[in-house]
Specification:
- By secondary structure, the chain is α+β, with helices and mostly antiparallel strands.
- About 50% of the residues lie in helices and about 20% in strands.
- It is built from 15 helices and 13 strands.
- Strand 2 and strand 3 form a beta hairpin.
- Helix 11 packs parallel to helix 15, helix 12 packs antiparallel against helix 14 and helix 14 packs antiparallel against helix 15.
- It is elongated and about 105 Å long.
């Protein structure tokens, strides 16, 4: 009986003899559902691509795990031993870092910047060489410490890269225990350092950061075996959140342990909020689009009044009649949704493979997109729910006029 219902529903929607109003309306409904479904796949994939790009960009700078003191400004090896942390399962490498605000000066230009002192493992783990716009990704020049600066810092200081041996960058930091009001000149500790490269990662890093060797930062700040944080890099198969919990138990409550996602939580949350807000908006568009199916089924039921009476006279039950028209609506929705999902996936694949949409002057050459199975399931469920609503409502209301009271489909 179910096969008979589907067969009749298909014949009602697609007529072999003529292109009637019902067939035209059905095709329009399929196209509308397909277009909205395709748009949802493309838009959600675009948000996934942006999130992946953000994560990739932060991976150039932030380690997988960052451990910093909660109550003190610095930590020492006796507080948190690096070798012990490196021996933990799942750790690839790691090192101490020093991070502090400094005054950067070049000729008559100056500005406040963030100096980050790193160990050699930083350049080994972070693929910063692919982010270098000018110069090279090196923290040493002829065996002496050198710096990498963000493109925003370079522009603010009007720094000329290849004059660094004769006209280096000057960094100044306030010495601990010194008061600016007493003697401003003696309160600052100053060091010159050449710049070997200019990087561009994202706006936050580009406009603020100067990367220097750890020993240079320690000398400038007068740190003696004191550091701002410990940064750890994990093996690809290590779960960052699970490892963070283990490190937090080991380090104790006096330390703050964060994953890269937690360090940049606001950016990730903002992107996810925008993504699902867009999903809800497009869900309403899908709901409105399925109203076309209601109109098509209403016309179909009205046109097939005589057929309904004939089917009743042949012994068809109320549920059989309802299943016929419900199947017609479900068929329209299924064909449209399937076509939309397939075309959406095809567009995303083309964008990934050949770059259909380019980004002129952007961080990447092509707009990033990425397929997420969870998103596809969410889109599919939304289409199914909207399709069920659009099929059940007219069947329940309008078929009641042409037969005895009927049970739910």
């Amino acid at each position: 009986m179910i096969r008979v219902s589907r067969f009749i529903a298909l014949r009602y929607i697609i007529s072999r003899k003529s292109l009637g109003i019902i067939t035209i309306m059905s095709i329009i409904c399929m196209v509308v559902v397909a277009v909205v479904s395709m748009a949802m796949v493309v838009v959600m994939s675009a948000f996934n691509g942006i999130e992946a790009l953000i994560d990739e960009r932060f991976s150039y700078f932030d380690a997988d795990i960052s451990i910093s003191p909660l109550n003190n400004k610095v930590l020492t090896p006796s507080d948190l031993n690096l070798d012990t942390l490196l021996s933990m399962p799942g750790v690839s490498s790691g090192g101490y870092t020093i991070e502090e605000y400094v005054l950067a000066e070049y000729e008559s230009n100056q500005r406040i910047a963030i100096m980050k002192g790193v160990q050699p493992v930083f350049l080994e783990e972070a693929p910063l060489d692919s982010m270098i716009l000018d110069g090279e990704a090196s923290l040493y020049l002829a065996g002496y410490p050198s710096a990498l600066i963000g493109i925003g810092v370079k522009y603010d200081l009007n720094l000329r890269l290849f004059e660094q041996q004769f006209n280096p960058l000057r960094l100044s930091a306030i010495q601990r225990g010194k008061k600016l009001s007493a003697n401003p000149e003696q309160a600052f500790n100053r060091r010159n350092i050449p710049v070997t490269g200019v990087f561009s990662i994202n706006m936050d890093f580009d406009s603020d950061y100067i990367i220097v060797p750890l020993e240079f930062a320690a000398e400038l700040l007068k740190y003696n075996q004191e550091f701002s944080a410990v940064e750890l890099y994990l093996h690809p198969d290590t779960d960052a959140e699970d490892f963070r919990e283990r490190v937090a138990q080991f380090a104790g409550p006096q330390f703050e342990v964060k994953t890269r996602l937690q360090k940049n939580e606001l950016i990730y949350k903002t992107n996810k909020s925008e993504k699902w807000a867009t999903f809800v908006i497009m869900g309403f568009i899908m709901l409105i689009a399925t109203f076309n199916i209601i109109a098509a089924l209403t016309l179909l039921i009205n046109e097939k009044r005589r057929d309904i009476r004939v089917l009743y006279s042949l012994g068809a039950t109320t549920n059989t009649i309802r299943r016929i028209f419900f199947a017609a609506g479900a068929l329209i929705n299924a064909v449209g949704a399937t076509a939309g999902l397939l075309f959406g996936l095809l567009l995303v694949y083309i964008q990934q493979k050949w770059g259909l949409i380019r980004l002129e002057g952007g961080l990447v050459e092509y707009y990033p997109v990425e397929i997420n199975f969870t998103d596809l399931m969410a889109i599919f469920l939304l289409v199914v729910v909207c399709g069920l609503l659009s099929s059940i409502v007219p069947v329940q209301i309008f078929t009641r006029k042409y037969g005895s009271p009927m049970a739910t489909v």
